[in-house]
């Protein structure tokens, strides 16, 4: 699960480099930099592209990117930095707390139960698996992959970077739409990502 953000970043990099074929000049054009811009400006623009996995505000923005939540647009106005940072920080904190609880519960499992349910060689037992092993596999998959995996990708690949980018005034809040669509619509990969 800790590899989820790294895997998402690797896929994002492959998308930028191989599928979209983005190079330094594309990045500089999107950032509206002059060809004579310094290496620091070019590097900052490249970091913006790398860490904005949705490509918000660029010509290679991901299709079906969910809009910002209605919470941000009171009376049709664009979100303020303060409102964005407050909400994103609160969500970051509760997501971190959720991950801490999930992993703490996992660490409190009895070592004898771990051996009985996850002993070497039992991972490929399907027909001969016990009811307890099936319950552990199903619960572990749902909790570990759907909940913790999604939160790990969201918290480190988007939310933390969005907070830093907006707090440092490098990006506007509108550049950071949600990383995912609704969980209730996540029955395909396209709907899962928005």
Provide an overview of this structure:
The chain is mainly α. It has one domain. The protein is 58% helix and 0% strand. It has helices spanning 3-19, 24-30, 39-51, 81-107, 111-118, 131-167, 189-192. Helix 1 crosses helix 6. The longest helix has 37 residues, at 131-167. It starts with a helix and ends with a helix. The mean pLDDT is 77.
List keywords for this structure.
mainly alpha; 194 residues; Wax synthase domain-containing protein; signal; elongated; 58% helix; 7 helices
Q: Shape from CA axes?
A: elongated
Quaternary structure of the protein: single chain
Number of helices: 7
Summing up helix and strand content along with how strands pair, one would put the structural category as mainly alpha
Radius of gyration: 21 Å
Helix content: 55-70%
User: Number of DSSP strands?
Assistant: 0
The number of domains is 1
N-to-C order of helices and strands: HHHHHHH
The major beta sheet can be summarized as: none
C-alpha termini separation = 21 Å
């Amino acid at each position: 699960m800790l590899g989820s953000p790294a895997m998402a970043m690797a896929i994002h990099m492959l998308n930028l480099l191989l599928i979209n074929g983005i190079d330094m000049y594309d990045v500089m054009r999107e950032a509206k930099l002059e060809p004579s811009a310094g290496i620091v400006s070019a590097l900052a623009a490249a970091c913006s592209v790398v860490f904005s996995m949705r490509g918000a505000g660029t010509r290679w923005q991901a299709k079906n990117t969910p809009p910002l939540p209605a919470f941000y647009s009171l009376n049709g106005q664009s979100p303020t930095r303060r409102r964005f940072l407050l909400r994103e920080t609160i969500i970051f904190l509760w997501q971190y707390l959720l991950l801490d609880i999930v992993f703490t519960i996992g660490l409190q499992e009895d070592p004898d139960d771990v051996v009985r349910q996850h002993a070497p060689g039992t991972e490929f037992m399907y027909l001969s698996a016990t009811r307890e092993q099936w319950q552990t596999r199903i619960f572990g998959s749902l909790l570990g992959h759907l909940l913790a995996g999604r939160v790990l990708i969201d918290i480190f690949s988007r939310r933390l970077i969005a907070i830093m980018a907006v707090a440092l005034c490098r990006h506007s809040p509108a550049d950071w739409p949600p990383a995912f669509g609704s969980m209730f619509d996540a029955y395909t990969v396209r709907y899962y990502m928005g």
